[in-house]
Design a protein that fits this description.
The chain has a single domain, classed as L-arginine/glycine Amidinotransferase, Chain A. Helices cover about 25% and strands about 25% of the residues. The strands form six sheets. Strands 3-2-1-18 form a four-stranded mixed sheet. Strand 16, helix 10 and strand 17 form a beta-alpha-beta unit. It is globular and about 55 Å long.
Length: about 350
């Protein structure tokens, strides 16, 4: 449905960034024996992205700050901020950044670690408003409990999400779809909300959209063929009609199947991240890595496709999109000073 909308707009991920925000991995329970490997993988992504934008990294100590700078080769575009966390999923515990004309603002959500699955999460729940405050920007607090990985924007008029996350009783008990439509459009400035569904083996987020369906441009949708159900295709037709646009669909391959300790891991090429000068593609060691890279090269010809080996990071049940949050280019963005700069 079309709802009353904010004058602020949640830009598309391919729109120009001022920065990309990360939270440094610190939780041993999430990563166990591959924690250091995950940190080095994330540092590789930071360096690739830093060629075109500032990198902001939440850390919990001076020691972690030194490690970030060491692992990123002391890149001049990397800043560490003294913002402690419980875990590293910046997409989910961070704010969603929006633009009011050229002015940067933030929307903050209630956060409960994907339906109270992974306590404690008190530090992560507090991060959204604190991150906005560090930039000195206005923040709008929503009553909804959700994560950034549940939201996908075409930057113009359409937001994609899933009922299995937003309407789940473990986040928003009693919330109706109409109520969610109104609140999402009010906060994010996108009048059309599309409700898609899918089941990624091993997923613990209850169906985050950023593992299932993504926009590649204002009128192009990417998904694996397993998500192209009649229900989803009908919903895409519905929102396209509301937008007075024909939405094209392209397919990315299913990622290699990976298992850990007897359980399926949620490997997905859909969890790519679009930065200013590159696209970070999560790879898992299968033949689909090449095919996914070829498709993204065709779709983003002005950006370098950077393959990131995520076979260790996926043990934490997420990949590169889950670990990043884009900060749109704006007239009021001021690069924060590194909190641990000597």
């Amino acid at each position: 449905m079309k709802s009353e909308v904010s004058k602020c707009v949640f830009p598309a991920e391919w729109d120009p960034h001022a920065a990309t925000w990360f939270t440094w991995p610190t939780n041993y329970d999430t990563w166990t024996d591959v924690l250091d490997s995950v940190r080095r993988m994330l540092a590789q992504a930071m360096v690739a992205i830093a060629h075109g934008e500032v990198i902001l990294v939440n850390v919990s100590s001076r020691e972690e700050s030194k490690q970030v700078h060491e692992y990123t080769g002391h890149h001049p575009n990397v800043r560490t901020l003294d913002l402690p966390s419980n875990d590293s999923w910046c997409r989910d515990h961070g704010p969603t950044f929006v633009l009011d004309g050229t002015m940067l603002q933030a929307v903050t959500w209630n956060y409960n670690a994907w339906g109270n699955k992974y306590p404690p999460f008190d530090l992560d729940d507090a991060l959204g408003p604190v991150m906005a405050a560090r930039l000195g920007i206005q923040a709008s607090q929503s009553d909804l409990t959700l994560e950034g990985g549940a939201l996908e924007s075409n930057g113009a008029n359409i937001l994609l999400t899933t009922a299995s996350c937003v309407l789940n009783a473990n986040r928003n008990p009693g919330l109706s779809r109409d109520q969610a439509d109104r609140e999402l459009s009010k906060q994010l400035g996108l009048p059309i909300v599309g409700w898609l569904s899918g089941d990624l083996d091993g997923d613990d987020t209850d169906g985050h959209i950023d593992n299932l369906v993504r926009f590649a441009s204002e009128k192009m949708i990417l998904m694996p063929k397993s998500i192209a159900t009649k229900q989803n295709l009908d919903e895409i037709d519905r929102i396209g009609a509301l937008a007075n646009a024909k939405l094209e669909i392209r397919y990315l391959p299913e990622a290699a199947s990976l298992n850990y300790q007897g359980g399926r891991l949620p490997s997905s090429h859909m969890n790519f991240y679009i930065a200013n000068t590159c696209v970070i593609l999560p790879c898992y060691g299968g033949a689909s890595d090449d095919e996914a890279a070829e498709i993204l090269t065709d779709l983003f010809p002005q950006r370098k496709i950077v393959r990131l080996d995520c076979r260790d990071v996926i043990r934490g049940m997420g990949a590169i999109h889950c670990l990043t949050q884009q900060v749109p280019m704006s007239s009021n963005f001021v690069i924060p000073k590194d909190d641990f700069e000597e």
